[in-house]
Predict the 3D structure of the following.
Amino acid sequence: MPIMAAIVMSLGAALVAMNAAAGRPPDRQKAPQPQFSDAARGRIVRTAREQSEAEVNQPRTDGKVPAKAADRLSRDEEAIALEGLERVDVVPPAEEERLIDLPTALQLAEATNPTIALGRQAIVEAVALQSGARAMLLPTLNAGSNYHLHQGVLQASFGEIRNVNSQSIYVGAGARTLAAETLAIPGVRIFSHLGDALFAPLAAGQIVCARNADSLATDNSTLLAVVERYLELAMAETSLDAIHRGEDSMRVIVLATAAFAKTGQGREGDFNRARADALLLHNEEQQLQEDVAVASAELSRVLHLDPSIRLRTQPRELELVQLVDPDYSVETLVEMAQAARPELAARMAEIAAADYRVRQECTRPFLPVVSVGFSGGAFGGGGTFNPGQQFFQAFGGRTDFDVMAVWSVQNLGFGNSALQKRSRAERDQAIAARGRMANQVAREVGDAYAKSESKKRQVAIARQRLQSAIAGAQEELERTRGGESLPIEALNSVRLLGEAGVALVQAVGGYDLAQFELFVAIGQTPTGSLPDPGSRRPQNMPQESGN
């Protein structure tokens, strides 16, 4: 039996019995029972004052005469009895409300959540770094010009000091050349350590894999938060509906006890007790209104939506969600998580990247720094060392090609040793981080599995509790209907029935959340458990926040 259907049927029986001020004799035909509408949200059902005259005037089996219609509560007396029990909005109503379901919420989170967007941009950054590492052996192109002017003495190659005025100019590929020197900045240049050119792209590729896995893990955790916020909203709304139905019954009991106290068939203390319980339940209803508003705001936050729009879930019963095969043992689930969790894949990729860096530093002294340069352009100039020479003598084309390889041992090898130790320490840290993550994954799977099993038992207990509450309430109502008890005696049963309904709602919602947590803990994404909402945007889709 659906959760709320059972509650509606039982509370409907409560309304019928509480509205009957006395029982019927066994030899008389049962008076027609008034019909009550389902307790829709925000609607108050009929009160005891609206009972039929035939039912009110029937004698009780214990010999007591029930209150007649003329002795019932007037409208003013009803207003006094129900003072403080009016159903009002705790949170001011929003200007706009939108319905949202779970697939749509997950789709919105993937498109608009800034945390997910941040993780995806980290992938873009890693890919850019990988592209740069792969291009280390590609040439750099330089074009430029330089002008050189010298006036005064200088020392010739054979040691003589001479007084020389000279100037030169170069235009073309590369720059910075003097006299017979090659260009210091070649026009086409390759300059890189061969070890860096070999291992840096490999390490960068592993970092890309790590960022992809980290992004997927971020998606899973963020979408799980969306599921949690959505279920919190759904549970709060369903619990509020259950509380509303309980309040409707409580109002009937309050009015019935007030009518009995007025005619002397009941005590004033019974009325005060019923009213106190009704006020207590009304306080819970006010708190649930706050919970609904807070849950809606939290769902808007994780979806990055305009918080001024009040989100509402689809008006349907909470259903049990079974995402993980219950036949799997926790050991099997841990093995599945070890193979599928993106966090572990990210840590493994970081270990591989760190290992490439260790090999890079170990080969550094044995592989050279290679410099290859080619330049071409126009060069010319002149000087005043010999009389009669022009300041600018001639211009002409020139080309230069240079290849250089340099092996380096840093700081007598101590510098290279320090770099190797640091890279090994970074690799060991990555290995330790992977082990810590493996322990965390196993713990999360165990916790989620235990929570799921516990919530499953809570659902079974809550169902039995609801069935017992229904049976108890029906028995109390039958006694009241038969004139064996006063309306106040059914108060506790009606209250327990409402509490049982709310407890079942919380148990079902808690089990659904535990299933999603276990589903994510074994490495699956929440969107994989739901039907694709499609690319079509519903007409009542919430709009993105302008922040």
Notes: Residues 143-186+369-406 form one domain. The radius of gyration is 41 Å. Confidence is low (pLDDT under 50) at residues 3-11, 13-71, 532-547.
